[in-house]
Amino acid sequence: MLSHGSTVAFFMGGKKLGKKIMVDEHTPKQSSYWQRFLHPWFAVPVMIVVMLIAAPFMYRSYKLSIISDPGEPFDVEAFISAHTVPDSENALVPFRNILTLMKPSNDKTYPECGTALWNRVSINEYMQNTLDHVKDNEVALIEFEKASQMPDYCEVQPAFINYTSSFVTTCNIRSYAELCVIRAWIASENGKDAEATKWLLCNLRTSRLVELHGCIMNRFVGIALHNLTSETIIKWLARQQLSQTELEKFLKEMQTIQQMTPPISDQIKMEYLMVLHSEEILQGEVFPSSTPGAAKAVLPWAFYFQGEPELLFRVYGHCVTNNLRYVDLPKYKRPSRSSHGSNICYLFVKPITESTHPSNLSPEKIELAADSSVLFQLAYYQTGSMLEAVDLETMRQRLLETAIQLELYRKSNGEFPDTLAQVFTSTETLPIDDLEAKGAILNYVKEGPLHYRLWSVGADGIDSGGVNLTLDKDAADLGIEMKRQP
After folding, report:
1. Does 145 reside within a domain?
2. 358 preceded by a cis bond (ω within 30 of 0)
3. Residue 270 and which of 15, 109, 117, 205 are 20 to 30 A apart at CA?
4. How far is CA 203 from its chain centroid?
5. Tens of pLDDT along 194-234?
6. 112: in domain
7. Radius of gyration over alpha carbons of the chain, in Å?
């Protein structure tokens, strides 16, 4: 039996023991998981690894934050649908077939024979061989003239166009056009000016056809054909003996053909399609096929972390949006060109008073993003040079039409007019010089009854007085000095 003192001691000891047991049950372990995770020896390496993984993605986000996504600058699907040419209307196959009809020339031909003939250069052996070559290919040239009357032309359909698209047929057309220039000279020399107009109009129609539904390269080919034919028409105009009615008909047909000219914006849109369809091609420029296998697996990721190809599409989209708003205006009505940076985008400065869509960024921001895009540096973007070439072509056509109007006046009155106002009876119809800063009237000076000078200020926008006038793109003043043969 326990005594009272022993019992008290027992319960007191049990109380202390219970307290000790309870304390031990709630004491955390010294090496818990959280302590291990937060320990510097573990946490710091983990954070470094996480940051290394996240850094490239953060850099990509930064690159893309430089420029917003403008979306489609135009309705791409509708554009493709509108510019897809059915085979029944396409002059492509007839133009291709001409190559099979062409008889080969010998090595002793003269490539610039047509120009030399119209300049009245004495015929040498090489020029005679070229004339014989034209006569041998009469059948092929007749088929070429028929093909030029087809309603449409497209060598590469817009749904498939890219940077590797081939335009062999389009490029070959120039050689046929040069033969037509000679054919027109032969007809004119034989007193058949009406027949000469058939070949001149054939070339003009062809120059418009190749520009339809094409990229910038197509436009350059069309401009080259138009320039070649315009220079020929001016030389022919000085000697032709058409009646008033026949010349009026020629002018009307020429103006109708000119209406086939596509707006510049069509070429800008086609270039955009080329970029959309050329992502892998552009990456191939950065990572050629000779790249080692291990590098090929890594480099595309490095490319991705630089924001590509999304950065390319964003920059290009903004460029197209900016350009489409102004390129179809006459030069004197367009805003000035941005002078920010290298201006590889050929951007226009927006007038301050003009309301703009929020997605239309300033030229400075677009240029900044363009400079940071690897793919954009590789993208084919020649808007600046194309615009200059198109503006010059427009003025050649206007000079040409004005010269024919002046010739019609001479046929009625026996001499050229003293002023353009005698030909164009209202100020609205007077020919405008788009290359002059304010869109002034073309310069005209009558030098004699059968002699005048007609000119535009040319590409540099500076009037040099109409000296040494030609239709060449590098001429100080773009124009015509007409000395009509009696």
Report:
1. no
2. no
3. 205
4. 22
5. 999 999 999 999 999 999 999 999 999 999 999 999 999 99
6. no
7. 37
Distances (CA, A) of 33 to 29, 40, 108, 137, 220: 9, 13, 92, 92, 72
Pair (374, 399) in one structural domain: no
Long-range contacts formed by 118-125: CB under 8 A, 24+ apart = 118/181, 118/185, 118/232, 118/235, 118/236, 119/235
Domain range for 322? 278-381
- pTM value? 0.85
Closest CA to 467 of 432, 459, 478, 451: 478
Report which DSSP code applies to 442. P
- Residue 426 maps to a domain: yes
Same domain membership, residue 315 and residue 299: yes
Considering all CA atoms of the chain, what is the largest pairwise distance in Å, rounded to the nearest integer? 158
Please name the residue that has the structure tokens 């690897």.
Answer: 374
Q: How many CA atoms lie within 13 A of 37 on its CB side?
A: 3
Distance from the first to the final alpha carbon of the chain: 158
Boundary residue ending a domain (381, 403, 430): 381
Structural domains in the chain (count) = 2
CA 297-300-304 angle, 5° bins = 145
296-306 as b/e, with b when 16 or more CB fall inside 10 Å?
Answer: eeeeeeebebb
**Both 348 and 431 in a single domain?**
no
